[in-house]
Structures are given as structure tokens and as C-alpha cells.
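mind reviewing both lines:
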Amino acid sequence: MVAATSTGGNAAKLVGRVGDSPLVGVGLYSDNSTGCVSCTGHGESIIKVHLASRISMYMEEGISPDEATRKALLYMQERTGYGAGAIAMDKEGKVGINFTTKYMAWAYITEGKLQHGMLHKESFTEIA
């Protein structure tokens, strides 16, 4: 399993600032025994709660990827007041996608099918 995250950056950031995307366990995490996670959103808040590893920990406890992402994102929002989004896949290939923002672009491919969306409850399927 692998996780990958890119960043849109942050305008007017401080010199030397490191965001959440390159920090393993924060913006992304992958563990063959649990699954993989990729996060996006308010970087400082994602860093504060170690969002990706928190989601992975929930999955390790047997919580589904959907519930793990929802639970961790709500925790982050309650603790910091900021929103984010996450996509996670467990070792069985079950996927969870949640976000506490208005929208989040997401996509994944399984069994030759591309799944993608941007708005809450939106999902499109195409042959990859």
C-alpha cells in the first residue's frame, strides 16, 4: 500500500514553514497491516492532531475507513476550529472519504475503475 499527497501551498507563508504534506504520519501515512491515508486542508491543524496517523490508528482498532476519517476530522475541527479532508483505504481495499470543508477533490482507482468527486455525497465512476 502507498499514500501520496501533494500541496497547493499556502500564500504568504513564513520563510522555512513546512506544511503537513511532507510529514509522514501527519499529511499522509501508509502501513501494510492497516492501510493508507492522505489528508488535505489547514496544514497547521493537521500537524497539531497528527491527522493521518490518527486515522490509521482508528482503522487499526477495527473502525472502518469511512468512520475513521469522519471521527478524526471532527476531532480536528473541534480541537482547532479548522477544516480538512481525508481519503483512506484499509488493507481489505475499503475506502473512506470525508471532509469538513465545502468541497474536496478526491479520486482513487480499484479494479480498473476510477472513482472521483468533489462535493459531499458526490461520486462518479469511469473505466480507468
Remarks:
- The beta strands are 28-31, 35-41, 84-90, 95-99, 103-110, 113-119, 124-127.
- The longest strand covers residues 103-110.
- The mean pLDDT is 90.
